[in-house]
């Protein structure tokens, strides 16, 4: 019996080893695969692929559960659609893919596209100079499965119809836009975007959550929705300064029936972006922008909003939903520090918005309300003890229907963590 038990144990260990192999990739060979795609094709589900060194001119398509990491590796996707695509659209149920420590550059569209997949992690990568097909603010050769990316080619990292996934500790720069979360081919929900350094992406926002027109192949009449996502501890700097422009963080609904709701943007930095630090837009009837929470963010020196969501000057946060049939209720703005802005918080919304316990330090308009509802702006620090009404010019002020009393007579204790 003892020998039989040992044989059973040995068999189990061998089986476990068989499904957890490590494959290597090196441009110089040395017993490793010469191309990442070859290693991906050879890998079994659950395997790990380690890129030892080299620059690889290829598009890597992942269709199975695996880990792809690098000691030193560059994917130069010049002339190719993507650098890496995690393709669950054509491989139903794809999950547990992990991508880390690579540099991905020069793709025509996204550097990394996660498509209809679950439990994916994208960490420690540098994603730069992608979206190279973009010309004159338009992307001419989009796949039909992502119809909403005509103005930015999908940005640097794109989660589309992804859930329970993490994008963390990446540097995303010199793309059209930084990180995009959208619902073109399915609902996108319960994802975490954290501790990324997103900077100098001129054509769109640093980080965007947007509900788009559904892809024709889905047969859906209405967008699927972007919801229950968390944007935490990121740095969004100098994005959206070019054609099209962009905010530090964008929460958007596009066509009638689009829905981007119940998301949290917490403890992030937005500085020197082309549009407001955080922009929330509902442009059409029957959209859902409700129950989004903007908590503990630091917003410095961002730009004015434009077009139908235009603000009167540089703005920290803009909440725009001028269509009465859209639902933008339950929006909470609290614990934020806003400075070097002409308007700290601008609201044009048919439903009530809560703006409480923030440090409104722009010394211009602390809260401007041009909408139909009243803004509850109690408990804020307006930059001086006199509040927004007793000493004009000393504190930030209010415009429109804004309840500001009682206000705080000391700054709100905010502890940034980005």
TrEMBL record:
Record's keyword terms, sorted: Signal
Annotated ranges, domain Right handed beta helix: 88-210
Signal sequence segment: 1-20
Alphabetical list of PROSITE patterns matching this protein: PROKAR_LIPOPROTEIN
Protein name, per record: Parallel beta-helix repeat (Two copies)
Organism, scientific name: Terriglobus roseus
């Amino acid at each position: 019996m003892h020998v039989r038990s040992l044989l059973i144990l040995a068999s189990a260990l061998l089986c476990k080893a068989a499904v957890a192999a490590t494959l290597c990739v090196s441009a110089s060979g040395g017993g490793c695969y010469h191309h990442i795609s070859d290693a991906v094709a050879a890998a079994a589900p659950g395997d790990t692929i380690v890129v030892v060194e080299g620059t690889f001119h290829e598009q890597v398509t992942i269709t199975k559960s695996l880990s792809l990491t690098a000691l030193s590796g560059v994917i130069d996707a010049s002339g190719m659609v993507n650098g890496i695509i995690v393709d669950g659209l054509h491989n139903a149920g794809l999950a547990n893919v992990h991508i880390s420590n690579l540099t991905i550059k020069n793709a025509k569209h996204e550097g990394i596209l996660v498509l209809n997949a679950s439990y994916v992690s994208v960490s420690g990568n540098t994603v730069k100079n992608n979206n190279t097909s973009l010309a004159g603010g338009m992307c001419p050769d989009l796949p039909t499965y992502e119809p909403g990316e005509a103005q930015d080619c999908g940005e640097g990292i794109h989660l589309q119809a992804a859930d329970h996934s993490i994008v963390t500790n990446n540097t995303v720069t010199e793309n059209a836009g930084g990180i995009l979360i959208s619902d073109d081919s399915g609902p996108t929900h319960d994802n975490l975007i954290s501790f990324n350094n997103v900077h100098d992406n001129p054509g769109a926002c640093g980080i965007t959550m947007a509900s788009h027109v559904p892809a024709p192949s889905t047969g859906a009449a209405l967008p699927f929705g972007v919801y229950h996502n968390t944007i935490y501890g990121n740095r969004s700097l100098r994005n959206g300064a070019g054609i099209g422009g962009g905010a530090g963080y964008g929460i958007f609904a596009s066509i009638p029936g689009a829905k981007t709701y119940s998301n949290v943007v917490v403890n992030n930095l937005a500085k020197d972006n082309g549009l407001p630090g955080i922009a929330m837009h509902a442009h059409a009837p029957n959209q859902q922008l409700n129950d989004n929470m903007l908590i503990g963010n630091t917003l410095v020196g961002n730009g004015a909003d434009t077009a139908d969501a235009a603000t009167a000057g540089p703005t920290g946060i803009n909440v725009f939903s001028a269509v009465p049939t859209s639902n933008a209720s339950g929006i909470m703005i609290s614990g934020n520090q806003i400075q070097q802005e002409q308007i700290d918080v601008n609201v044009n919304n048919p439903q009530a918005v809560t703006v409480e316990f923030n440090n409104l330090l722009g010394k211009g308009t602390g809260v401007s309300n041009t909408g139909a509802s009243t803004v509850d702006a109690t408990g804020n620090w307006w930059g001086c003890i006199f509040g927004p009404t007793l000493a004009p010019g000393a504190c930030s002020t209010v415009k429109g229907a804004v309840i500001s009393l009682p206000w705080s007579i000391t700054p709100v204790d905010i502890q940034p963590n980005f």
